[in-house]
Structures are given as structure tokens and as C-alpha cells.
Amino acid sequence: GNVCTNVKAVVSTQSTGGNNEFEKLPLVLGCFPLIETLHVFNNKLEELTGEVVARLPNCRVLNANNNSISLIPPEIRRMTSLKILCMNKNNIAVIPKEILSCIEITELHLGNNKITELPSELGYLKNLKKLLLYKNELREIPDEIGHCASLEELDISCNYITMFPEGIYHCSLTELHCDENPLLEHLPVLSQNINDVFYLKEMCARMLLRSFKDRNSPLRKQCMTRPDIVNLLKDARKCVLCEQSYLYSWLECVHFVDAKNVLKLSNKAGTIPIRACLCSYECFYSENHNYFAVSYPT
User: Fold this and answer.
1) Can you tell me the distance from the alpha carbon of 259 to that of 273, in angstroms, rounded to the nearest whole number?
2) Which distant-in-sequence residues (6+ apart) come within 8 Å of 137 by Cβ?
3) Which residue in 112, 206, 224, 294 has the fewest CB atoms around it within 10 Å?
4) CB distance 138 to 117 below 8 Å
5) DSSP string covering 57-73
6) Other CB atoms closer than 10 Å to residue 150's CB: what's the count?
7) How far apart are CA 171 and CA 122, in angstroms?
8) What span, in angstroms and rounded, lies between the C-alpha atoms of 118 and 161?
9) How far is it, in rounded angstroms, from Cα 61 to Cα 84?
10) Shortest CA distance to 87 belongs to which of 54, 62, 105, 104?
11) Gap between the Cα atoms of 235 and 173, Å rounded
């Protein structure tokens, strides 16, 4: 009776199943695998039933805004046609890695939730154009966001972000919204010169990394016979100043850029701090650069 009537409204391409009293997705929805658009916003859903979600491989738009959903089920990976996922104003704390199987996604609307971190695998979403994460509990953005080369709009307003990752340069941003975050400010603080003291492990790593630049190096040839060492050194990064490689020890810095001009945005986002890592204090104390050491209030 009433359930069937509501379901007909849900599956209609011209209608909506929003503004109902659903506490769970009706299991009968799984009998409609050709559904392309599913609106279940403004209900009382506490979960997206995995059994239903797994049977909607052709769904391209899922709008579950304004519910009480606390998690995205792992079965979301079965929604391989999904392009737009809207789950604003819920109770989601974690973005499951399974959602990264939905490689067709162009828009993720996850504002006003309780998300504390983004998976580094987010970069697998090569088609992602819009990522809305306002009013969450994020403290950082993974550098891998730079792999989302198609990303045009990013909204991380009202979080706890202090700086942006270097990867932000590799996105195609036209809009960036980052107000109401405790972004680092360009304020002078008293500091003292510190000498570099590296652990033996870091010193050895840097020596090996330098040897990799010379294809004829005997040390390099020996390392290439040890897959464990090669895999370990894959995590190395380069100093933004001298371009020397480091592995375990670095100095976290920031530089401040006019977001609109440098990132070519269409909106004004002001001056933003972007993370940069230096290999040593020696580099930091060198002249003619605009990188600043990070100082957090105590």
C-alpha cells in the first residue's frame, strides 16, 4: 500500500522520494536495477541499506541529504555508474575506501557531517570535479588530492584546516572556499638558529638516494638487488629549495600565495598557506626564498 506508493515516487525520473518518513531504504528498491536517479533526502534514514545499494548498478545520482546516516556502506562499490553522491547534513564520520571504486563520480557532496579525515586514495577519483566538505572536522587535506586533476570546486569551509598541501597546485580549481578555518597566518615570531642533527637512518637514506642519481654507482646497483630497500626509498621526497631527496627528517614550512591569482580561481579566496617541506635547517637559513617555518601556538 503506502510503501509501494512511495517506492513508485522514488523510482520515477520526474518525482522524488524525499520528504517522507523512511527510516530504512525499502528492500523492494533492489528490484529496480535500472534506477538512474534516487532521491531520498529529508527522511529519517539512519543507514543506506547495503543490500539495496548493491543492486543499483545503474544509479547515476543518489541524493540522501538531510538524514541521520552515520556510515556509507561498503556495498557502495557496486554502484559503478554513480556520478553524483549527495549526503550533506548527515552523521558520517568516515569516507570508506570502497567509494573509490566508483571511478565515474564527478561530484561528492558531504558537507555538514562529522568527517575527520580524507583517505589518501581519494586521488583515484580522476573524474571528480566538485568536492564539498564544509562543516566537518577535517584537520588536513592529503597531498594525494593533487591526483584529482579534474577537480574544479573545493569547499572545506568551517573545518580545522591550517594549511593546504602542495598537491593543490595540480588540481584544476576554479572555485575554492576555505573561510572559517584556522589557517596559518603570516606573522613574525622570535626564533633561533638550530643546527641539523640527523639520525643515522636518515643519513644512510640520503646517501643511498644520492647514489640513485648515478646509474653507474656500485651502491645503486647493490640496492637494486634489495626490493625491500627500493620500496622503502620510494617514499622519499624532494626539498623544494635544493631538490635534494630526504626520507624521514624534514622541516615543515609554508609559503603564502594569493589563491585567486596563483591558482587561477574565479572567486576570491584571499591569501592561503601552502605546505612546503625543506630538507634541512641549512636550506631554511639560506637566502632569497619565501618559505616560513611553522609555529603553532602553545
Assistant:
1) 9
2) 114, 115, 116, 159, 160
3) 224
4) yes
5) TT--EEE--SS------
6) 13
7) 13
8) 12
9) 5
10) 62
11) 27
Cell reading at 236: 622519499
Q: What is the residue whose three cell numbers read 532521491?
A: 39
In a structure prediction context, what are the per-residue pLDDT tens digits for the chain, which is 298 residues long?
444 444 544 444 433 555 577 888 888 888 888 999 999 999 999 999 999 999 999 999 999 999 999 999 999 999 999 999 999 999 999 999 999 899 999 999 999 999 999 999 999 999 999 999 999 999 999 999 999 999 999 999 999 999 999 999 999 999 999 999 999 987 655 556 666 677 888 888 889 999 988 989 998 889 899 999 889 999 899 999 999 999 988 899 999 999 999 999 999 999 999 999 999 989 998 998 999 988 766 5
Task: Say which residues have a Cβ less than 8 Å from residue 44's Cβ, sequence separation at least 6.
Answer: 21, 22, 23, 67, 68
Residues whose CB falls within 8 Å of the CB of residue 231, separated by 6 or more in sequence, listed in order: none
- C-alpha span between 63 and 53 (Å, rounded): 13
